[in-house]
Amino acid sequence: MSDKDPPVGSEQVPAGTGAPGAADPGAPAADQTHHWWRLIAIWVVLSAILDPLFYYLAGPHIPPGTMTNMAQGAQFDFNVLFVIALPVVLGVWIYLIYAIVMWRASRGGPEPVAGPYSRGHLGIQVGWIVSTTVIVLFLAGFGTYELVQPGGSGGGEGSSPIWTPTSQTILPVQVIGQQWKWTYRYPTFGGFETDQLVLPNDTTVEFNVTSLDVVHSFWAYQLGVKADANPNYNNVAYATTQQLGSFTVRCDELCGIWHGAMYNTGQVVTRQQFSAWARLTAFRLRKNTRLLPPYALTYTPDANGADGGYYPNNADPYSKVEQYGATPSQGGG
Ligand SMILES: [Cu+2]
User: Fold this and answer.
1) How many domains does the chain divide into?
2) What would the pLDDT profile of 65-120 be if each residue is shown by its tens digit?
3) In a shared domain, residues 242 and 193
4) Averaged over 314-329, what is the pLDDT?
């Protein structure tokens, strides 16, 4: 079809599919308006039903849950995006289904003919540009606000974060990635190191994420936290716990052959349970702690001598092969 083709509005296929050829001599323009308003009505009604249904029934169960303010923020953002996207998807699907039902060529019926041009239609053009512009600009503003407002959205913000939480009491926890495990140091409890990540509830946690070798990524899914672990770099991420339970920690940066096994499970416990656990663990691991390098935001992996390693003499407490403290180095403590 070229621009020279005449508009074919007068050959509009009738709305009813059951009466092929029974073109309604009544105005085609009226027939078109009829389809248009019917489509809009179906779209508005379905959107008005399905959007709240999703938001109130499915929304509270959408991952990553509400274990921290960051996770809750991610869940809320997803729900808002879904509620905005659903009517767009519905608009396309409803039009397609409507077109298939109403305007298909029936077997043995007349050849289908094209309707009138919609190009050059001022209302459609303006409506399209305005609605898409409003949606995109709103989402850009919403996304920016949601990134800043809760304090970096649980992402690693680098060593000097610009979006910091307002909480007065912040618990620092160091996350150390290495091939192929995670360990955690608690500087406010003597700097002990453990492979258990235990956090108190109702507490803002500052994760100081670093690596001893290659690039890893600390991904505590249910906490809504994900921060790259780079060697010689302190990557800071925040989250405020608000729900008891367990969460998974995975490495989210391909880091070698056992990357897929680089995970463990953490716990959010009550503040009382946490301080009891932290004091007990600090006591239990006091000999190990003396062998560790002093707490620092980053570590030079081979700082402990020619045989290298963050642990003196490669005496790695978490390795299945080497026994921690078997051959403590002379400078260890
Ligand atoms: Cu890794």
Assistant:
1) 2
2) 999 999 999 999 999 999 999 999 999 999 999 999 988 888 888 887 777 777 78
3) yes
4) 45
CB atoms within 10 A of CB 311: 26
Alpha carbon of 127 to ligand 1 centroid (Å): 49
Residue 23 CA to ligand 1 center (angstroms) comes to 68
Between CA 185 and CA 263 the distance in angstroms is 17
Q: Is residue 306 part of a domain?
A: yes
Mapped onto helix, strand or coil, the DSSP state of residue 252 is coil
CA angle (131, 132, 134) in 5-degree steps? 65
Q: Find the 177 Cα to ligand 1 centroid distance in Å.
A: 6
Q: What is the mean pLDDT of residues 299-310?
A: 58
Domain annotation covers residue 234: yes
**Pair 191, 78 in one domain:** no
The answer to the question of residue 145 being in a domain is yes
Write out pLDDT tens, residues 24-45: 444 445 555 688 889 999 999 9
Query: Which ranges constitute the DSSP H helices of the chain?
Result: 28-53, 69-103, 122-148, 271-284, 286-291
Q: Which of 118-127, 148-157, 159-168, 238-247 has the highest mean pLDDT?
A: 238-247
Q: Which residues surround ligand 1, an ion (CB under 5 A)?
A: 216, 251, 255, 262
Q: Is residue 192 part of a domain?
A: yes
**What is the CA(307)–ligand 1 centre distance, in A?**
22
C-alpha 207 – ligand 1 centre gap (Å)? 16
Q: Are residues 224 and 292 in the same domain?
A: yes
Q: Is 128 left (phi over 0), alpha (psi -120 to 50) or beta?
A: alpha
- Does the pTM surpass 0.85? The reply is no
Q: How far is the CA of 248 from the centre of ligand 1 (A)?
A: 14
For residue 285, give its domain range: 170-314
Distance (angstroms) between ligand 1 centre and the Cα of 319 equals 16
- Ligand 1 midpoint to CA 250 (Å): 8
Cα–ligand 1 centroid distance for 247 (angstroms): 18
